[in-house]
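step: validate -> pass
step: tokenize input -> pass
step: predict -> running
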Amino acid sequence: MSESKDQREFVLNASDVMPIKMGPDPLTNGLAPETIFDVLKKTCAERGDQVAYKACTQMADKDAGKFFTSSSDQEYTWNSFYGKSMAFARSLVKQGFTPFSAVNMIGFNSPEWVIADMGCMMAEGLAAGIYATNNAEASCYVSQHSKAEFVLVEGEGQLAKFIDIIKNNLDGGIPTLKSLIVYNMSPEDVEKHKNGFFKDHQVNIFEFNEFLALGAEDESTKIEVEKRMADVKPGNCCMLIYTSGTTGNPKAVMISHDNATWTGKMLSVHIDGLHPTDRIISYLPLSHIAAQILDVICPIIAGACVTFARPDALKGTITMTLAAVKPTIFFGVPRVWEKIMAKIKAAGAGSKGLKKSLVTWAKGVAASYSDSRQGFNASGVCNFKTAASPCGYSCADCLVLSKVKGSKFFLLSFFCNNFLFHFHFLFPFLRCIRHVQ
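step: predict -> pass
step: emit ->
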């Protein structure tokens, strides 16, 4: 694509096409703009039978059936992910979905969440996630502001928020709402909601798999979705990312297809490549741009495999998921790493005398090595490829660091090549470490 002559720096309407300014470097700012569908189709063509997404693994017998739709170890190949996303898009069209209106998703990370996310974009819509922790009022605001026509909700808890919004007409309700789609709830329980309340308020409610089937028999829906996908330009908006709303109402940011795909490709450059063999754990909110890029866009680009953690990941089960999945890339915000640091401090609190001195020395050596592996050298090569271990590192690793890596808690974490955070003394042996602010 040649450089656009349109000098606009921004657009105000979701249906507008953002001009894409091209640079001279074919590997960075000169990359040809692509839609998310362009990239997804390539991945399906190259490795369609490889696993793209895995549902959360239920770790104990007592959890059997706890997550109804996302059953334990349920797998989706790239072809099946594309097919189900297409089915979601066709059902949206069948139900009268308007281009550049929104689909909201609220609930914990799951295959259903990303299928709805991609299906919305395929139907030329705006995928707009809502934080699962939002109350009814905050959820209502996002749905109103994004002009949501369909909302995907997880289970009774999230459904109750929208029942509250509709029943009490919170802040005027959601005038554009046509249907609610529920996952992690049995078809029988969803059926109980159909007559009475929702019927009286002229809002449809569907169980997730029931919704996927709505457009399957109507071939015209496939034709319409393919037309809409063909109409989409890389500069078109594909998702709305909302702030958490801690300082007022949530604010929306329009993200274009090019913005998403280019950012994913550049992340790959900065961690020395994303590969089909990479394994990623999805546990941070998909309504945030960080998880959208790492859990959705980057895997589409590379054909990597994503496993969804359990909904109680941050209450302790993330460690079990780490051990089961052995991720090669793991993304963490500060509070995740603070919990790890707290575990280390607690484990070392009893150290005294020579042992304490030895541990302190080993941490210093490891921190020095970690520092030397950050960033790029003058030739643009990642420093972790060229940095030499400092004097004494092998000894420190043998006496202290290897013991930490093999401990009951931290053994779960050290399969990763890329921990996207700078955590000096604990992770000097990883392929790439990055700051996350």
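step: describe -> The radius of gyration is 23 Å.
step: cleanup -> pass
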